[in-house]
From TrEMBL:
One of its GO terms (molecular function) is sugar transmembrane transporter activity. The keyword Cell inner membrane does not apply. The keyword Methyltransferase does not apply. It comes from Trogon melanurus (Black-tailed trogon). This is Sugar transporter SWEET1.
Length: 194
């Protein structure tokens, strides 16, 4: 829906860039984990996810009036991914050790990605407005993190299961915020005290 909004308005106003950049990095990291583990579910889902996130990034870059910061953040992400790829392929020779370290890296990255929307929590409570949150992204995050938690549970893979649990919890918290401060209830003015 955010991509549809960008295409319709030809603007990136009220759309956050960083969550989609980090999701792209997350997809690419899990793609590497899936390739090492030879898990076609992880590979397929993360190829599709990375392609969609890259499309979003390109659309955001195209419609953004301030292209410099967007391009700089994207290039920084590519540099971090290249450094990570070099580390995991050149410095860690043992395949099991590589899988464990990449799994741990992906887990920490996923947890930080799921916890990042909480940075806006104080702003939301103070303003009593969920305008800075994306409801479709919240629904998608809830469904994805729940699915991956159950998939990790089924495989007995803690690297998949554990980092997705915070996604379930933070999504439920965001649903509560949408319920507590419904969109459209924001006041564009401060009430006058008599």
């Amino acid at each position: 829906s955010d991509l549809r909004q960008m295409l319709a308005t030809k603007s990136v106003e009220n759309i956050q860039f960083l969550p989609f950049l980090t999701t792209d990095a997350n997809n690419l990291s899990w793609l590497g984990y899936g390739c090492l583990k030879q898990d076609w579910t992880l590979i397929t889902v993360n190829i599709v996810g990375a392609a969609l996130q890259t499309l979003y990034i390109l659309a955001y870059l195209y419609y953004s009036p301030a292209k410099g910061p967007v391009l700089l953040q994207s290039l920084l992400l590519l540099a971090v991914l290249a450094a990570g790829y070099s580390y995991f392929t050149l410095l860690i020779g043992d395949a099991q050790m590589r899988l464990a370290r990449l799994g741990l890296f992906c887990s920490v990255f996923t947890i930080s990605m799921y916890l990042s929307p909480l940075a806006d929590l104080a702003k939301i409570v103070r303003s009593k407005s969920t305008q800075c949150l994306s409801f479709p992204l919240t629904v998608t995050t809830f469904l994805a993190s729940t699915s991956w938690t159950l998939y990790g549970l089924q495989l007995h893979d803690l690297y998949i299961m554990v980092p997705n649990m915070p996604g379930v919890v933070t999504s439920v918290l965001r649903f509560w915020l949408f319920w507590r401060y419904p969109p459209g209830q924001e006041r564009p003015y401060r009430p006058l005290h008599a």
